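A.,

Following up on our hallway conversation. Structure tokens first:
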């Protein structure tokens, strides 16, 4: 499983990068506005640390989404474009794929959405484990269904487990065999901790 950082905070990203092999960064409009990080700074980060960086489209109709994607790619053609799983998103995804843009269908919560992402030829599909669980669904069951479908139809789309809020979500991603878990910085400091490890340091 590859480790992505779910943040746009440059200090947090650099700190985690110093501890672990990290392969990428996922952002969304909320994370970008909270951190005040610009796309130019993310382009520099991509070049400096060789991290794949995913940027989400904010517009909601296909024309505006397409124009927005072109502006993002003009800043850095290596950005991965995160496209919300909507009917308008499918239109813009098809156009971007004709340009060989690397894509991530985001805001996926179900087997049929995950199938659409793969059937459309997306490079990545982000399954939102935390938000799905908030609505009472059995996330392990959905993840295993998605994985079986991808194996059965031999899709190449990589599964990103996103909306991770707890260590148990990370354990679920490992157990399930996710291609990528995108982990918020707040959970990084908890990952290597265990009460018996702490006790072992003084005994
Ligand atoms: C990442 O791609 C997602 O945008 C992010 O994990 C969403 O997390 P949240 O559900 O905690 O907002």
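Then the amino acids I'd put at each of the 203 positions:
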């Amino acid at each position: 499983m590859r480790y992505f950082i779910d943040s746009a905070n440059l200090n947090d990203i650099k700190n985690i990068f110093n501890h672990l092999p990290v392969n990428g960064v996922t952002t969304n409009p909320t994370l970008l506005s909270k951190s005040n990080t610009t796309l130019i700074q993310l382009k520099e980060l991509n070049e400096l640390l060789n991290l794949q960086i995913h940027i989400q489209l904010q517009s909601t109709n296909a024309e505006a989404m397409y124009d927005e994607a072109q502006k993002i790619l003009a800043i850095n053609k290596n950005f991965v474009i995160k496209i919300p799983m909507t009917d308008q998103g499918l239109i813009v995804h098809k156009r971007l794929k004709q340009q060989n843009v690397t894509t991530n269908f985001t805001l996926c919560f179900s087997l049929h959405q995950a199938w659409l992402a793969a059937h459309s030829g997306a490079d990545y599909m982000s399954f939102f484990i935390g938000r799905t669980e908030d609505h009472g669904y059995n996330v392990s069951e959905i993840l295993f269904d998605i994985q079986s479908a991808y194996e059965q139809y031999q899709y190449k789309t990589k599964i990103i487990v996103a909306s991770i809020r707890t260590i148990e979500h990370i354990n679920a991603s490992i157990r399930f065999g996710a291609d990528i878990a995108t982990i918020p910085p707040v959970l990084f400091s908890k990952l290597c901790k265990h009460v018996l490890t702490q006790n072992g340091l003084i005994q």
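Strands lie at 2-6, 24-26, 52-56, 80-84, 103-108, 124-128, 158-162, 180-183. Curious whether your intuition agrees with the design.

B.
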